[in-house]
Amino acid sequence: MVQTCSVPNCDSKLIKDNGIIFYRIPLHNSKSFERWSKALEIENWTPTENCVVCSKHFQKYSDQTSPSEVSFTDLLCGSVLNDSKRKICSMNNNKRKSNNLDHTNTKRLQKGIKKTIPITLNKYGTRNFEQGCFVQTCQAPKDLPLYRFPYNNKHLLHIWSKRIGLSTLYDLELYLDITICKNHFHEDCYDKNSLQLKPNAIPSINLIDYLGPPENCFSTTTNSEEISMMTSNGDHTWGWLGSTEQFGRISELNEFIEIPKSQLQDEKYACFAQAAHCFIYAENSKKVFNIYHPRATILMQLRYDGYFGFPGGLIDANEDIVNAVNREMAEEINLNTDLHSVTNDDHVISHWSEKKKLVLHFYKLKVTMAELIEIEKRALLAQDYGSEVLGTVRIPLYTLGDHYRGFPVFLKHNFIGCSREQLIAALSILNIMKPEEIKLALSANSINI
Ligand SMILES: O=c1[nH]cnc2c1ncn2[C@@H]1O[C@H](COP(=O)(O)OP(=O)(O)O)[C@@H](O)[C@H]1O
Question: What is the reported pTM?
Fold first, then answer.
């Protein structure tokens, strides 16, 4: 059922991308509720949790003022309603009441359903709930830093939840997937020149359900143990969450599916975020320890998150895939793109993940062994070396006499996205390894030793 505005004669409906925002009525805040009632000029008003008012009735929105610059107090003071019959949402006889707010944050949390409003596409062509701010009314720019909920501190979690209008504390698991953006934290909440929140920071601004003073942005908890626990836990609790970090979350088995080449232009993938990575390799016949045949030398890299992956990254809006992968390689491994760069002909394979709304393209770059060594050296001077990239590594493609150490052990590491699938596909497509050899390495296990 489509959600509609509770104001009589207002036809606003919750439809994707129509630019209309819906506000819940602040039922649990008597002061603001009183101001709403006054602005709406309603007497004997008994709205339910199902009542919402759309952004058309807030004056500041009519001139397209950026919501992030407007406090909700301003919004309410400037409210204008153009209808004189204000009998909205009376408990007894309002037909609309069941239409409204079927999708409140509260209910979504209960069901574990993701936020669906407001939906606008970000620069990656996607804005699903996990990437966005959970505050239902938030209209801040989409690429603001996001903060995880302090789910390891119940006291703080409760305050955060209450501030955004959740009346109960829900199953902790649910908080793992939701975030609040920078738009809701007072500037005092950050350490100087940093985006990291102070340990007891709480959301205090641009919240429709909380109209307290903006400076009320710290929890007054005196439990220093709790605070030190939070700070020492660092980033994995509620630190700054990069807007694209969610793509990197652990993949499920078989989450990435190969896209047939004939379907690469399919509309279906156009609205997904896209990334491209590259398989840099050289033929190499120099035996390792004079025993093991190396087959080829292939470069992977250890990433900041502990996974192995290939150089490359997300494609910016309107950026060509090939330009993006070359740009990323210049940033991540300082590749001299005047000497080496991929072209459309170097495309190897593409995959997609429905869950992550992500398409991953894979390219190859063949160089000589001498060039590869030069690439390795230059990588130490890359812009991203030491932060995003912790070093390039060569892959052992041989297997030792125990049928386990070597390539099979390498395959037991953790690989980002579908990079393991990409590696295996490229080895076979580029005839570096025979399918039987790959199969053997994949099925080898330590029991053989
Ligand atoms: O080598 C790779 N092969 C396949 N997918 C990858 C690889 N590296 C990263 N990914 C996927 O692509 C997403 C974005 O890539 P990456 O982290 O390299 O982008 P960025 O450098 O622009 O932040 C990752 O979160 C992950 O899901």
Answer: 0.56
